[in-house]
Amino acid sequence: MSTPASWIPLRWPSAWTDPALLGLLQGAPFNCLAMEWNPAQAPIAARAREAGLSVVAMGNEAQRSAGAANGLDPLPDLLLAATDSVWPGIANQGNATESGPTANPWIDSNGWFLRLTKVRSPEKTVWLTFEPPGAPHVVLLDAYLRAVADTGVWGGRWVVSLDADLQGGLARGDTKALASWKAIAGAVGFFERRRVWSALEPLGVVGVISDFAKPNESTSEEILNLMGRRSLAYRILKTSTAATASLAGFEALVYVDEGAPTPALRRKLLAFANQGGLLVVGTGWNRAQGKPMGLEHPRMDVHRVGKGRLAICKSSPPDPFMIARDVHMLLSRTYDVARFFNLSAFLSYCAASPDRTQEVVQIVSFAIRFANDVATAWVPGKYASARLWSLGSEGPSPIETVPENGGTSVLLPPVPVYAGIELVGRPVESR
Amino acid sequence: MPNAISRRELLAGLGGSSLLIPRAASAFIGTAPVAPVATARCRTYNPSELAPVLDGMFDKLGGLGRLVKGKTVAIKLNFNGGPTVRLGHLPLGDTHWPHPDLLAVTMHLMARAGVYRVRLVEGAAAPRTDPFEEHMMDANWDPWQFLRVAPRVEFENTNYTNAAKKFTRLTVPNGGLLFTAYDVNHSYADCDVFVTIAKYKDHPTTGVSTVMKNLFGLTPLTAYGNGAGKWEDNDLVYGNDRIQILHRGSRQPAMGALPELDPKSPRDDGYRVPRIIADLTAARPVHLAILDGVKTMAGAQTPDPWCTPVEPGVLIVGTNVVNTAAVAVAAMNYDPRAPKGAVPFERSDNKLLLAEQLGVGSADLSRIEVIGPSIKEVMFDFRALREKRRAERPNRLYGGRGTIQN
After folding, report:
1. Gap between the terminal Cα atoms of chain A
2. Do B127 and A332 touch (CB under 8 A)?
């Protein structure tokens, strides 16, 4: 029996009461069934346990109690099941696709949430319990793969949940449904085999500092979400530990929580700016330091502080979309850890080992249009080579790189859902 | 190559009605200015090859010093489409933006010739608070490449009023074809020398895109773009094209820019866009036109799946924008005097002839001195590629975007 940290969960459909369906798990990576208890599934639970699978109770409080009373495992403390996670994809509201002010489609993703949870509760394994959209939506295979990737890239686990069509198809032994099931299981297995990647440290020179609690919760979390949307690589710092944290490697810090920082944190942040960093603060900073730089910025008062800059938001709470954009522009794309071409609606995650001997750029594409275009990822360092990992693949394939603008362009095939780029050789930085 | 055109063909090329041509301008038909155009072979963007070739071309035109010494130069870039859209894996400078090394070498030569200031200008579809340099970096260009090679290099996103606080009105001599005047960023007026640098490409609306079409981008999106007038603080431009106001004329410009001359004129972009380009070449005279034909693409002005990357290995430079465009169009194996309906102007009026009518410059190759290899020697057959695409996709004008409109 595996330990909770290595449980790979599948939400067992309540409509599946035939134990023979457990045969689907042969060759699949799932080793844990998550059940919303009902008595008809007792034979399933029993047979699963006999086969060495873990069976945990999910659902509402009554379902979990009933499950526990019938021998199902409760969710261990080491697991954090996020019930408010979202089905990843381009957000839809009625018939209209939502978009931001720059007309980019809005993306629902759990990436920022997983990264925040890892900072808040590093000891926990995160399960996301989102479910596929119900009728009348048709859930295509790519949407499932995207759901797996949007969780796996950031080290979480999706409690894989199948929509009614796929459940029915699998129960009937439908060939197309079985092929989809195999692909989904293959994608889950792919990220399980690459879990070492989730232990890598995120790259990024922007630090976002917050308590991530009310009243700052929605603003600070949305800043993470929207920085990711524009490929502005960030790292997360909790207010409670920021005053003593190392700020090495940061070029910009964002602290827009309401209220003034503690004296220790204020000193630390000001020292960062004095030494040449960009410090972006909210109105709660409540003290203008340095000399105005004369920038006519609509949302920030920007001051020269020592060798660096202090940018104070004019409104409270600030607009997270604008914060993400303004920080990127005040800092400059000079510090981009990667740039991407021919990808429209996508998220990326760049991470590396502390000694930079292992470095990975992962892309999750949410685009439906133009998904057939070849793509390019550019990174500022010079590497010996690169390898491409695709969903379901057992191993990487070599991929062409070319020098460009002092760095390296990785020439990718079309990225309909996911690409993992492993950069080989410690980078020679171009900047 | 046929250079002659009958009066009947000329009128057809101008929309079929001589009434559409301003009477005052019609006097220029036979007397539009001409100036030499330099051509050269250049196979790569390696500065060690580019610099001597370009330097030699400028010398043949009388030298850069005569033009730029002690002057403020504005160089209009030709940034079509978004900065992160590529044709395949190719960097934008290899396909549809002018190559950054060509720009840098040009600036280097200007610096050597004593230029006082170089301002790089373009209507970039980026928010006002985004520095223009950041737009370049989004395309993976390095702005430091330009800052290093010339004195007082400035960058200006001309979609906004910026420091001037208001747009400058450029009046079209003799009244204009579509608008009497255009409101533009001050940089287009506050310069001693105006340079257009662009690739030659096919264009879905106006047939070809060269150093002339680049001027369409003088019109700021905040006044002439799809989102014009819709953002109160003008800090966010969405809709990075000019379809509604300029192409279709479905509404009039914003921010106090003058409305068009005749709201009852055709709403067809094949009528409107060439006239706007011709107007702009008259309203904002070009002192130097640099055509980047080292590498480019055939099939459209921005990448689409039917475009073909090509490497003609050619540079064309002139001091008259219409003359230079005429040589460039001929070097694509198209007829620069072709009327509307004929290749490459299948669905638009011929903007070169319209500009000629306005007295900007002649499109008559028999009057234009070509210095360097002949047009035949530097010709790259865009026409053949166009016909091949059309054969493969007969319901499309170019095999790509642009449905044939009768």
Report:
1. 50
2. no
d(CA A214, CA A197): 32
Tell me, what's the ipTM?
0.92
Residue A63: DSSP 8-state: H
CB contact under 8 A, A329 and B89: no
Global confidence as pTM? 0.92
Q: Report the sign of the C-alpha dihedral through residues B176, B180, B186, B190, in that order.
A: positive
- Residue of A149, A208, A180 whose CA lies nearest to A415: A149
Whole-number Å distance between alpha carbons of A400 and B100: 23
Nearest CA to A337 among A360, A357, A355, A358? A360
Q: Can you name the residues that pair with B296 across neighbouring β-strands?
A: B310
Structure tokens at A91: 């957000």
Count of CB atoms situated within 10 Å of the CB of B171: 15
DSSP state of B210: S
For A141-251, list the strands marked E by DSSP. Answer: 157-158, 201-202, 206-210, 234-238
Q: Which residues of A touch B233 (CB under 8 A)?
A: 298
Amino acid at residue number A349: Y
Identify which of B103, B158, B161, B157 has the alpha carbon closest to the alpha carbon of residue B133: B157
Residues of chain B contacting residue A405, judged by C-beta atoms under 8 Å apart: 140-142
Q: Where are the alpha helices (DSSP H) in B71-159?
A: 100-112, 132-138, 144-147
The phi and psi torsions of A383 (rounded to 5 degrees) equal -120, 160
| Under 8 Å between Cβ of A288 and A303 | yes
Q: Kindly report which listed range (A99-108, A286-295, B44-53) carries the lowest average pLDDT score.
A: A99-108
Confidence of residue A250 (pLDDT cuts 50, 70, 90): very high
Contact A333 B134 (CB under 8 A): yes
Phi, psi dihedrals of residue B10, rounded to the nearest 5°? -60, -45
In angstroms, the CA A152 to CA A391 distance is 11
Min Cα separation A374/chain B (Å): 6
List, in order, residues 6 or more apart from B78 with CB less than 8 Å away: B97, B98, B122, B196, B197, B198, B199, B209, B214, B217
pLDDT in tens, A193-230: 999 999 999 999 999 999 999 999 999 999 999 999 99
